[in-house]
Amino acid sequence: MDELLPRPKSVYLPAPVRAREQAPAAHRRLTLPQWRSGLTLPNFLERRTKAGPAIFLTLALAVSSTAVLTHLYSPCVQVSVDGVDMGLIQSQAMVEAAVDRVEARASRILGYDYVLEQNISYQPRLALREEQATTANLETYLFDQIGEVMQTSMLTVNGQSLGAVDDADALSALLDSILQRYQNEHTISAVFVESVTVNRQYSPTADLRELSEIEEVLNSNSLEQVDYIVQSGDTFSGIAYKLDMSMSELKALNPDVDIDWLHIGDVLTVSQAVPFLSVRTVDNLTYEGPVEYEVQTVPNDSMYEGDSKVVVPGVEGTAIYNADVIYLNGVEQDRMVNSMDVLTEPVTQVVEVGTKERPRTMATGKFQWPLRGTLTSGYGTRYIFGSYSFHGGIDIAAPYGTIIAAADGGKVIHASNDGTGFGLYVVIDHENGLKSYYCHCSSLLVRVGDRVYKGQSIARVGSTGNSTGNHCHFQVKRNDVTVSPWNYLP
Ligand SMILES: [Zn+2]
Known about the structure:
Elements lengths: L40 H9 L5 H18 L1 E8 L2 E6 L2 H19 L9 E8 L8 H11 L5 E6 L2 E6 L2 H13 L6 E6 L3 E6 L9 H8 L2 E9 L6 H7 L4 H7 L13 E9 L3 E13 L3 E10 L3 E5 L4 E12 L2 E14 L4 E8 L17 E4 L2 E5 L2 E5 L1 E5 L5 E3 L4 E8 L6 E6 L4 E11 L6 E2 L4 E5 L9 E8 L2 E3 L7
Parallel strand pairs: 11-15
Antiparallel strand pairs: 1-2, 1-3, 4-5, 4-7, 6-10, 8-9, 10-13, 12-15, 13-14, 16-19, 17-18, 19-26, 20-25, 21-22, 21-24, 22-23, 23-25, 23-26, 26-27
The chain binds zinc ion.
């Protein structure tokens, strides 16, 4: 109840002496050190008056404090109902207004003019505003005196009070209708995710709500960012459509996701209208579905390690499943299979897996850098010697004699200076469609026909042929067509 009432901000001023015992200590900070609890104001003045020669100074201080007090303190009334203390309330008029409200509500519920018979008395007081309460407690007390018929149904969601209504049945019907939204003939349970409680209690008039107001709050949605787990058959555009988002909205929430390459189980961030109250339902479903096939691997010593071949393709079976399917606001979250009756058995897939050791000189399919150095010219069109020309590789400058390594395993198909601008150069055929060129070398460490492994030293950096300094021109051809080395280098 207390949380509902507006609480005055704490003011750091001397506490009123009379009321100090009721006040929480944390809200007080005494700025006048000589004030002690237990002293009433007149008592305080009296003692100081008798205190001795410092009387004038003390009295002056006390008088000025009194001036401050009368300014800070405001008149109010101490209210009691049939002798029961109701605390301090700002004015008698406020109490009378509260009594009117209680009588009006009681009359409406009871169906006749109800008049409170309690004896309410008022004592004028002077107190800080923060000591003065609203009439909420008084109203609740009076309803309690009238009896059970005055109780309301207070709706609380996750500890937050949403308001009280007179009609308990209407409130419970409203909550049921929200739960009903996600139910069908297969639903075996439906609960709110939030903690939703309805308490019968006496509530002050200020907490009373029309059922329509409560309904409006419960039916409101908020747009929230939630996780979406990619499922079989999902596409980026399909997910956007399903969640009523545009492709650009979905992309903006998932900047690092390759939209053409979604995997089952990937987690996307999506925005979704989340209802004020979320409903978790469980449906018991019986349906026909696929049965996954198993995969059996068979070693094959005539194939290289890492290579494999499907010899018997797998075929899915079919079965009748019975499962409990869990939904959150109608969106499937989980599926627990209770039983399955197989209609057709799946066919196990058989895969042969190579066990023969792969020769080191076979291409791995992944290049390494042939040497460390400074990139002095990139791949593509460049401006050189006063005109534009096409540069078929990349130039890596390094000191004379630096070792050049094979970018991948393969067979040396050129190792000489044949008078072209490349000077002394090596070409390796990786026997997977790729060839790599290492040019302008000072010396060669391999000969035509040699098989080399990835990383093997094959030449040294120099400046032979059409070259203006020590560097290695590294070029890649795919099916004998020059391609960008950047597509292959790590
Ligand atoms: Zn070059």
